[in-house]
Structure formats: C-alpha cells, structure tokens
Design goal:
The complex is a heterodimer.
Chain A: H1 2-35, H2 44-50, H3 52-85, H4 91-99, H5 106-117, H6 122-131, H7 141-166, H8 169-177, H9 182-211, H10 214-219, H11 226-235, H12 240-265
Helix pairs in contact in A: 1-12, 2-3, 3-7, 3-9, 5-7, 7-9, 8-9, 9-12, 11-12
Chain B: H1 6-34, H2 49-89, H3 93-101, H4 104-107, H5 110-121, H6 125-129, H7 131-156, H8 159-168, H9 173-184, H10 186-202, H11 205-210, H12 218-228, H13 231-256, H14 292-297, E1 304-312, E2 318-327, E3 332-336, H15 343-351, E4 361-364, E5 367-368, H16 374-377, E6 379-382, H17 394-404, H18 409-422, H19 438-451, E7 456-460, H20 468-485, E8 488-493, H21 496-502, E9 505-510, E10 513-518, H22 520-525, H23 530-535, E11 540-547, E12 550-553, E13 556-559, E14 573-578, E15 583-586, E16 593-602, E17 607-612, E18 619-623, E19 634-639, E20 645-646
Parallel strand pairs in B: 3-8, 3-9, 6-7, 7-8
Antiparallel strand pairs in B: 1-2, 1-4, 4-5, 9-10, 11-12, 11-14, 12-13, 14-20, 15-19, 16-17, 16-19, 17-18
Helix pairs in contact in B: 1-13, 2-7, 2-10, 2-13, 7-10, 8-9, 10-13, 12-13, 17-18, 17-19, 18-19
Classes of the chains: A mainly alpha, B alpha+beta.
Amino acid sequence: MRRRVKLYLLFMIAPALAVFGAFFLLPLARLAIASAAGPLRFKIYLLSLTNPRYFTTLLNTIVLSVAVTLATLIISGFSGVFLTRNDFRGKSFIVSMLTFPLAFPGVVVGFMIILLVGRQGLIGDVTQSLIGEKAVLAYSLVGLFLGYLYFSIPRVIITIMAAAEKIDPNLEEAARSLGASPFLVIKDVLIPALVPGLISSGAICFATSMGAFGTAFTLATDIDVLPIVIYTEFTLLANISGAAALSIVLGFITWIALSLARTAAGTTVAAAG
Amino acid sequence: MMKKSKLFLAQLSLTLVVCAFLIVPVIQSVMAGLTVNYLIGLKSGITFVWFVRVWDLYRDTIFRSIMIGLACLGCTLILGVPAAYTMVKKQNRLTRLFEELLVTPLAVPGLATALALIISYGGLTGFRRSWLFILVGHVIFTLPFMVRSVIAVMSSVNLNQFEEGAASLGAGFWNRFFHIAIPNVMPGILAGSLMVFTLSIGEFNLTWMLHTPTTKTLPVGLADSYASMRLEIGSAYTIVFFLMIIPLLVAMQWVAKPKKIGVIAEKTETIQNVSRGTEMRKMESSPIYETVEEQRRAVSGTSLHLENCAKTFADGTQALKPFNLEVGAGETVVILGPSGCGKTTMLRIIAGLESPDPQGKIFFGDVEVTNVSIEKRNVGMVFQSYALFPNMNVAENIAYGLKVHGISGENKERRVSEMLEMMKITDLRNRRIDQLSGGQKQRVALARAIAVRPRLLLMDEPLTALDAKLRDALRVEIDSLLRSLGITAIYVTHDQAEAMALGDRIVVMEIARVAQIGTPREIYFNPQNRFVADFIGTINHIKCKVFEDQLTFPAGRIPLKSAPHIHARENEDVEIFFRPEHAEVVEAGQGHFKATVAASFFMGDHTRLILDWTGPDYLTIEAKGNQSFRKGQKIEIRLDPTALLTLKV
C-alpha cells in the first residue's frame, strides 16, 4: 500500500539521479583527482597563489568582478526602483529593451561591445568627429568591464524590480504620514527592504562575472581572466592538472558567492553567462 | 501623485542612457546585417546577401542547435518532471540532498563542467565526437531549471488535497500522477520548457569546450563568424539568433503572467424545499416508501465501528487518545469540537488517509478495513477546501470517480446528469472550477463524492468557508439530502448550531479526547461535564454550600426540595450550573438573588443580559419580552430549579 507508493517514487527519481551522478558528480570528482595527478600533487593549489601569472589572473578576475558588481548594483538599483515606482508612456517598452539582452550568450555580448567601442565602433566614430581621435576601448580592461556590465545589468534589474514590487506600499505611506521626505523614505524604507535582494543579486552578479568565458573570449583582450587561462592551459598547453586545479578554485569561489546569495534570498539562484 | 521633479528627470535620463547602452549595439548589428557595406551604412542600400551567406555557411549549425535544444528539452522533461514530483511528495534526506546538489551545475563554471566531462568520457571517441556529448552537457546545465520551475508550481498548488480527493474516489498512483498532478503543474512545465530550450540554444561556455569541428552549434558558429568573417556576416548571423530568441522570450513572459479568473456567481441561493415528499428524487430504481423511517431502513449506507483507535504522530504528539465509536447504518454523526481537538484526524482515520495506532481497529459493517487504503474503501469525501480538480470542468469532476471505477459511456452520462439534477446545478455542467462561487463548489464537491455510491460519506467542515446566510440554506439542503439518500455520514464541524441541526448524534471533542457522545438533546440538556456544557451554548455556574436543606450562596438561596433531582448532603459543597434561558428577570422580592446589568444585547426575540453580581464570574441570562435594560440597572433573578445541573469537571 504505502510501500508501493514509495517504490514508485523511487522509480521516478532514479533516472535523474543516475544521469546527474554519472555525468556531473562523477566527472567533478575525477576533475578533482586529475588536479592532483600532476607532478605537484595537491601543492598545485598553492600554485594558484604563488605562480605570478596565475595569481595576477585570479586577482584581476576578482577585482573586475567586484567592480562590475558594485557598478551594476548602483545603476540597476537606481533604474530598477525608478521603473517600479513610476508609470509613464513607453515604460513597458523600456523595460522590454532592458531585459532583452538577458538571453544573450557571452559571445554575443562581446560582439555588442565590439560594435560599440571596437575598431569600427560607434563611439569611436563619435569621438573621431568630436575630438579627432578614435576611442577604441573594446580590447582593453574597459571593454571587458563594459562587456560584463552589459550582461549583468538586465539580470540585476529584473531581480530588483521584482523585489521593489513586493514592498508593501503601506510602509511608504506610513513613513510619509509621519513626515518623511522622499529622500528619507528611500533611505529608511526602500533601501532596507531591498537589501536582501541587493545582496543576492550582487552575489549572482559576482559569481557570473567570475565564471564568464564567452565575453572575454570574443574580446580577446590582452588582460586575462581566469576562465581564459583555464582554457588556454587545457587546450594549448595540455596542462590538465593545472587547468583542473584552477577550475576547482574558480568553482569554489563561485559556489561560496552563490551560497551567500541563497542564504540572503532564501531561494536558489543561478549564474550563467 | 508624483510630481515630475528633478529627481524624476535625473532617473529617467540615467535609465535611458542604460537603455541606449544595451540597445544601440543591437540596432547596429541589425543594420550591419542588412546593409551592403557596414562602413558606409544605410546609404549603401539594403540587402539580404549576408543572410544568404550565413545560411550557406551555418545552416547545419543552426539545425544542430535546434536539434540539441529539442533533445535537451525531451531529456529534461523525462528526467526532471518525475524527479520534481518525487521531491515535493517525499521530503526526506535524500530528496533534500538532491535538491541542494541540483544547484551545483549552476554554481560551477561551464568551463569546469566541460573539462570534467572531457576528462571522464573523452576517451570514448565515438561519444566524444558526436553531438550527444554536447547534449549531455546541456542536460546537466538545464535540468536544475526544469526541476526548480516544476517544484515552484507544485508547491504553490494544493496538489495534496487534489490527490487525496482523487484517492477517495478510487484513483491509484499513476492515475493521480497523469490525470491530476501533471495537468495542474502545466504552467511550471511550460515555463521550464521554454527556459530549457532558450538556454540550450544560447549555451556557449560548455559547448565551446565540448564541440568538435563536426558538431558546432549556433553560438559556436557565432564565435567563429565574429573572429574570421566580415562584420556584416557576423551581424546577420546575430540577427538570426535574435529572431530565434525573441519568440521564446515573449512566450516566457506570456506564461509568467497570472491569468485573471472570473467568478460567475448566482444571485441568491435560496432554500430549496426538497424535504417535501413529492419533490424527492429517486435513486436508481428504488420503490416509493410510505414513511421516511421505512426509507431510512432500506439504506445504502454501512455501519461503522471504531475500536480502541488512537493517533500518535511521528514527533510524539498524541492527537487522539484511545476511543470507541459506533455509527449505525444511515446515521449522521457529527464530530464537534474546537480547533485542534483532533476531529479532522478522526475523520481522516475513518477515511483511510491516516492509520490509527497499532492496537486500533476499524470496521465497515462486518468487514475490517484497518489496513485497507483509501482507494479501496469506497468512501465519499468532501474536503474543507472542496479539492475540485481545476483541470476539469464540473461534469468531468463529477464523472471522475465513475471513470476510475470503469463506468463509462451512457451509464456514466446518466449518473452525472442525475447528480447534477439532485444538487440543482444542471446549468453548471460545463463550467470551469475557477468560475464557481463557494456555494456552487460545495454542491459540485458533494455531487462528485456521492456519484460513486459510497458506503460512507465523510465531510470535513464543508460549510466553514461560506457566509452565514448561505450556510444556513445549505445546512438544510445537506440535511434533506442525507436523509433522502439514507447514507451513513460523518460530519466534522466546530459550529455547534450546525452540529445540533444535522446530527442524529454528536461526538463532542475536547483536546485529543472524546468528551461526550449523545443526541443533540442529551448533549444540551444533560451535559456530562463542564466542557460540554460550556461548549454547547452558554452555561452559568454558582458555587453553593448545602445549609439547612438550602443551596446557599452569598447572594441568595434555593430550597433543595424544589430541585429534587439534586442529591446533596448537609454541609456539602455543590456547584450548580444553569443555561441563560432557565433564568428570568422578576419583580423585587420574587427572585433568588439580585444582580446589576453590566451589558445588554437586544437579539430580536430576547435580550441577552450580562450580569455583574457577588459571584466571581459574570452571568449570562436571557430576558424574554420587550423590556429594555440600562447598564447599571439593578434587577432580581429567579432560576428554574428543575433545570439546574450538577456536573463533573
């Protein structure tokens, strides 16, 4: 009777467990093993801190991700809250435009940046006609930064808009009835209510930026980020253990960031891009 | 009202700048893909030549992406939907662990996952070189999204109640999964499917590592075109990508929008006079009976016998202390008690949704059913929330139990029509459930439960969710219905007026234990303990001492011989109880004691008075007639000595 139901349920979850175990858990375990398979064994993890190239890359990636996260939170915070609380003609059009790039893979984002600030980019043409010099930013750190900003803003804006919509309007009205100015309302009611959403989307933004590959790949900058280094180690230098170790370090950092997001938001979140 | 202040303009400008940053390159790529020469711009003319080139060069990658996307969708549906169902229904360590683990492919960078796959399975060259290798990566990456989407919808829909409703109608596990669970989580499945397909089409991080020259996908092709082709070709290819993505995004937004439901409510639901013999509907081909008693005797219901049943939950709380219950065939027994007393637990034990503690036994007639599951017990169940299946209309809901029992075709249709007529909802036949009012849902739930001719009808607070007037009307209808059907019914409620009106006998429950079982009159006039006396109606109490053959208390005295049913010795402490209607307001000198009016409530046919007096508690009495009372007014009260009660506590 009830035992049969248990059997049926087991039968229903078994395929997913099997596929997940075989094609994800097992390979990850093998990745961890592979990282220690090289001549250095587990000391290879230390290498990520001691080897200057690895270390600068790791540092670059972290600093870039943090910078992108902060910029995105500020920009999306302003715009997101603004859009939630104001209704005007063309608003839904603007919202669709802001969220359309959500589905772009990193490569397309890179391409967008090239179109904007690349060698034949729009900004370059504008600056050329204004000051006579073509500004080409795409292949530098600025371009990378802009690219990461490009895929982060839509994600974070959506989260912030959802969080702002959930705020009880009565809270704000109560504050106003007690004499609070618009600025105080934002400071004392709005921002505290948004903080969990800001933390969680900030963590997602950080994690996504850390693991982003396509954008950096397309922009082919001189400055390397960790995913690119992992890629080159594996494909060009056949340094399997090194690539594996760096992947695990990268995965570990992203996983911590996302766990932080989950405890702050209380739901599961994802990094993709 | 918001003024268009400086703040507004500043924010608007910032937002527009961000918008431009995101959209201008999109427009650029669209233009680049359509013009002859990007550098010259629109002036060089519109052309589709780049699209033709893209088609030539990348046609197979586009098809491959679509193929992988669809295959990925199929895999995630087959793997993910049953897994999500299991994770919601059975929450134990294993499923919770799996739920946690399921997040990890999203946390681990695609690169790492791809690397891990290559290291583990790269050796299998056939596999490594085929598109299946990429498929595996996509499935791992998208499965969490499908599972999460389905779980989210499953948790928000009251699936458990629907499944219990289906089980009470006899539906087995697979029937419930395919006909109840899946249709009701369709929005989650749709949203998940769109998400999975969109993610698969656009996936790059994993795919770049996993692909080979013969298994390129669309994003891989895009990367190639950006690197090695003219800007115009890259742009045209990007436009193709946009064209594929836009309908998917629009569909996702449309699925996410909550749909408005409209309740088509009837005007007023008035009392239908079914109890008149001439309008009584016949069941099957039953003969006409001379009296209601005769009909009642030829019942279709079974008798119920619960022996030594108790219920202790897994965490140790004892929801029900051991009790016995006998219900005769055709009888209506009401289980009455305050919230949390265990009455619903008792009902669920009778239904078969919970099992009693090991030493308990349940009998339907002569057959022991203690270990029989609800699907096989043939009980009709009406839930507090009605549990009507939202994916079926009214007629289909009513027909569901019949279908499960193998009744189909003309027989089924006839029975459904019979039920619709009996409950007077014939014109609701094709209505959807979310278009029904509370009273209408109530009738449909009843019709569904009795369509399969159950031996026992179980109702869990069916009228609680309705407004007072509707409740009164439906109460009468349900009473007539139960009597005309001759069915054995167990009815759970916390409303004592309902219990008194409907029950042949009432089981009054205190927390976890049975306080008294009896007819409504027995319960009201002869409560066996203070709880029952207080729960049914109102009761007043006076602590007295017997002195010189009088019941004496500070405010007055009552001669013992006027209350011959009370047996007390001299000097004994006795507590007497009386109901509000057994006290009357009298002229000075004619009463047993004096009191002051603390509050008075005019109720129409009587005035309810709350009295302050020398005793510790307020007294509640009913004053007949149209005398009005002021707060603070001093009055004299006379009790009816023959109606005094002495009770155990």
